[in-house]
Amino acid sequence: MTNPFFKNKGPFKIDILLKLAELKNFENFKNSKIYDVKDLSNSSIKDITFFHSKKYEILASKTKAAFCITTKNLKHFLPKKCNKIIVDNVLFATAKITKIFYPESINDDFDKSAKSILKTSFKKKVIFGNNVLIGKNVKIGKKCSIGHNSIVEKNVIIGDNCSIGSNVIIRNTIINNNVHILDGCVIGKKGFGFFPNKTKNYRYPQIGVVIINDNAEIGCGSTIDRGSISNTVIGKNTFLDNQVHIAHNVKIGDNCIIAGQVGFAGSSILGNHVMIGGQAGISGHLKIGSNVKIGGGSGVVKDVPNNSKVMGYPAKDLKNFIRENK
Per-residue pLDDT tens for 116-138? Predict the structure, then answer.
């Protein structure tokens, strides 16, 4: 599911789309219409996708996308039916395409539509503190509470029996039932995605959402960025301690426990029943299996298989770490 809140400006004819993105104009593609930009696994025959790393070759070989932005070295992994658009920098080209479809996803200015909860229908159904603001297109379930000075900006869905603490900001987020968001959290802001330039950095559009599933708890001062192309997901009954940072597209499974000051780089995926000690760092685009334990202060820079225990920097098998540090 891509962001249900940002308006898609498509469809575009492929030649027009490539021209707007200042990419090569493929004349033989001019009659094809493209309706959306999606990742490899979620694309349909009406979409354009991207393939930038051999790490995703299996997903690339199965994609149903009509067009794929990729490189000369990677194009042979794609299905024959998928039209290849060859570029030097796949992510930069994809950012340009995404901005055309979703121009509103670039900026994260404060929500001008937000107004006092006292001026909304929620004043009769929500327990709330002082100075609570609510934006447009917000849905809140039964038996919810919102603390002092918190802002539920536009485009947020909150389920039943949820508790939102004080000084919290939420946008572009879907929160399911029985979720606790503690004080000082910022959820659903754009991720740290851009391309450095000598004069002006080029921002990568963030069109995903944050999804927080049932019975999860987000500790004080934590930050969860919304997804770029896919979504950022927190699993059921997963608890985050204080000051945890979750970058865009990260997916954390069910029943995980993440201690304080842990940081996740973008697009890493965790299985179920993962435990991570305080101040550990998880690099981007990694797969952490289920039933994994990661020691505090560790630096995880490669995939970790199921049922592993690792520690150190770079993180290694726990028995090896203990043996080397006696």
Answer: 999 999 999 999 999 999 999 99
